[in-house]
Amino acid sequence: MKSFSTSLLASLLAASAAFAADAPFELTGMPPGATVLKSQSSRVFPTPATTPGEPIETRPPELSTDKPAFPGQTRAPYRQTVPYKVTTITEALKAPWGFAFLPSGKVLVTEKSGAMRIVDMKGAVSEPIANVPAAYYSGTHGMHDLALDRNFAKTHRIFFSYFEPVADDKTNLALASATLDEAKGALNDLKVIFRAYPAAPKTLNGNGGGRIAIAKDGTVFLTVGDRSKSPPWEIAQRLDTHLGKIIHVTTEGKAAPGNPFIGKEGALPEIWSLGHRSEQGLAFDASGKLWETEHGPRGGDELNLIEPGKNYGWPIIFHGIDYPGELINGGLTEKEGLEQPRYYWDPVIAPSGLMFYNGKLFPQWKGSVFVGALRGTMMDRLTVKGDKVVDEESLLFDLKSRVRDIRVGPDDAVYVLTDDGKLLKLTPA
What CA–CA distance (Å, rounded) separates 148 from 171? Predict the structure, then answer.
């Protein structure tokens, strides 16, 4: 596949150079009567509204003519659920990205700069775990997510994702496994089991992906962003690259049996779904369905129900506009054969970690979907019935912290990781 790699990277470099030089783009005209929300307005996130039955979002959409494909696809009505108490376990972490609960009750955390640490429930933060591989830390890239093997109590095995520096001033998203020696604070048996193809220039340090979900059978799902700048390319639509895809592999990094593109000429067998931009959340619901949150362009953040072989449209269809303020592909929002998001946010909230709550501590939240919001500086709670969002509630907005990841603890409390270094615990008030 050498010739493909050379051609693809040449395209990536050309796009990156055009962006860096602020070169003129080929623009598409706006629909008649359409107006665009001013860029600076979309970056100011107002206090979410709390009027029962009305949306929490009060701003107009980025593109005035943009409409949902079906009722309830966006701006669900507000519904208040239950009061809660917030306890700060620690605020001494440095740009944390992902976390998982160990059988000991402690928490293993990744920091984007390249470290892993162990945090106990009294707030003690360990020194960096030894033998963690070097991550390339720039822009949105660095050390990303982690997850425990289904048989962790026996194997002590973890999986984690990070951006790995490679030759020729490039990086790629790597998925590694290792065994954790909790007592000694070290990783052993380190092995990179999967590398996203192809590696791309270090200057393309956005739209990384890197979120992990472990299926019931122990296989591993990983999100891989398209690493696009503006204007976007259609890498996410090509089956001969992992960029802009969700991949599905065994614990050894091989294509998982039953993957939809195994045996298809010109397609990489690890691909599970395609047409993604920058997937930041990935989680299974109680029924075993896989869901994803994704950063879209201005006005196009998404919650998707992920199914094998499906095409989620980027950059052919989407809601919103490109970041410089122009249309992409004429502003097309629907096309036969391309999947619609189950929900979208316009203007964006920059969704991150994704979690389904099925604990007993908060019975009012059972079955709710929790979405971290980076730009929105909140935790968004959604009620999903079937595959439709029926109401929405903003939580933690008063903290003004970028919510990076969310997990349910062994005590059924909700734990929240924020970009400003906090690990929070939510319990009933």
Answer: 25
- Asked if the bond preceding 77 is cis, omega within 30° of 0, the reply is no
User: How many C-beta atoms surround the C-beta of residue 331 within 10 A?
Assistant: 21
Report the Cα 318 to chain-centroid distance in Å: 17
Q: How big is the CA angle at 213 (ends 299 and 281), to the nearest 5 degrees? A: 15
Which tokens belong to 372? 């971290």
Task: Name the domain count of the chain.
Answer: 1
DSSP secondary structure letter of residue 132: P
**Residue 35 falls inside a structural domain:** no
- pLDDT computed for residue 338 by the predictor: 98
The CATH number of the domain holding residue 153 is 2.120.10.30
For the whole model, what pTM was predicted? 0.93
34 in a structural domain: no
Residues belonging to the chain? 429
- pLDDT for 104-135, tens place per residue? 999 999 999 999 999 999 999 999 999 999 99
What does 317-380 look like in DSSP terms, one character per residue?
S-SSB-TTS--SGGG----TTSPPPSEEESS---EEEEEE---SS-GGGTTEEEEEETTTTEEE
CA distances from 394 to 50, 302, 364, 380, 391 (A): 8, 16, 15, 5, 11
Q: What secondary structure does DSSP assign to 135-154, as a single string?
A: ---BTTBSEEEEEE-TTHHH
**Can you tell me whether residue 254 is helix, strand or coil?**
coil
**What pLDDT shows up at residue 45?**
84
pLDDT averaged over the chain? 92
Round to the nearest angstrom and report the end-to-end CA distance of the chain: 58
Residue 50 in any domain: the answer is: no
User: Residue 168 CB: number of other CB atoms within 10 A?
Assistant: 8
β-pair partners for 89? none
